[in-house]
Each structure stands twice: as structure tokens, then as C-alpha cells.
């Protein structure tokens, strides 16, 4: 029986700008963190990050598992899906449809993160969607959109409907499908997904108890945006900038090599 060879990709650090390289390192780290937290789905689902100063974006090489992805193995494409640097890998066609749709119209978004977790899909399959049951859901509900299921996202005409449904929101639940976050930075997109995923896990656990559920009152939901800003504001910046360095330290200990 043959043993699969370890994936080896030549470094592209000297072929790209310093800003692109940093984005590659952070995006590869994000892929590894998704694997570390158990939110991956074999080689499926995808995270993209815009190349600074351009309309191009980076996305995963279709065929690698998330724990294998490195800064150099990420594939750079333009908004038409054409590869801009040589790569032995193609990209996931459904991933291209979803991510290009967002990047085309949301110029404030630097990273789009999409996953298929059991808890996320379970909540997406519920008619009422995400319920106001937890503090985590409070933050998500302040900027949440839905996009109805149209099958595997292979048809480009779906892009306009996805764009319209997302609007200016940062979180999206795709019924019967999964979860999506769209934020200015990779760190923010990861923190947003951590919060959304945790809210879904809590909802499924609360419902499994069979008792009557307590919903967060509407007056508290209405003030969620202000509360979120108060919790996350610090001298280090907003949102994901707070836990990101610690997450990278955790990754360096448990799943190093993403920055190659």
C-alpha cells in the first residue's frame, strides 16, 4: 500500500508584495483554525480574502484539506475566476460563485468565510432561523441576512440574488446549506464565525432539552450594536484584532506551518 506524499508547494513569498504575503499568512491561518475547531468539511467550503489594493482574491486550492493549506498554496484569482499565478490546483466552482458575488459588490469586505457545520445547517433548516436565545445570538442578529437554497451554487445568475439578500449585513445563514460571514478583515470574519457557530450550537442544545425557551427581549436586541462595540473596543482595535494574536499562538503550538 502506498502512502500519500506530504503536500509541498514552492514558496511565493518573493513573488508577491509584503501586503499580499501577510494576507496569505493570515488566510492560511484562518483555514487551519477552521480545521482545528472541527468546522471543516473535508476539502469543501471555502474562505476568501481580497488581495490588498486590488479586486483579486485568494481562495483555497481545491483538493487540499484545510489543515494542509499554506500561505503559498493559496490560489489567486480575479473576479472572473481566472488564476493569476501558476498553481497545480483549481478552485471550487461553487466557492467561486459565492465569494466573487460578495467581493464584486461589497468593497468594505476583505474576507468571506463559509462553512457547513452540523449545528449551522441544523439551525439553517429551521423555519425561524436563528433565535434570540443567547448572548452570542444577540450580536449576530444585529447584522443577519438569509439567502434561500437554490442547490449547489454553480449558476452565476444566483449571484445577483445572493448580493441582494446579503445587502450590507455581516452574517448570513443559507437555509439547508450553512453559514457565512463577510467582514473587513480575516480576523473579524473568523471571530464573526466563531460567534455565529457558537450561537447555533447553543440553540440546538437548548432545543434538545425540551423545555420552554426564554427569548431575549426586543429592547435588548435593539441595543445589540452598541453593546457589541463596547465589548470589543480596545487600544488594539476592534473585533477580531483582540483574540487573533492569541489564536495564532495556539495555532503555532498545535498546527504550525501555515506561514510557509
TrEMBL record:
Source superkingdom:
Bacteria
Using the record's annotation, list all stretches that form the Class II aldolase/adducin N-terminal domain. 25-204
Q: Which Pfam families match?
A: Aldolase_II
Which Gene3D superfamilies does the record cross-reference, listed alphabetically? Class II aldolase/adducin N-terminal domain (3.40.225.10)
Question: What protein family is recorded?
Answer: Belongs to the aldolase class II family.
Task: Name the chain's protein.
Answer: Class II aldolase/adducin family protein
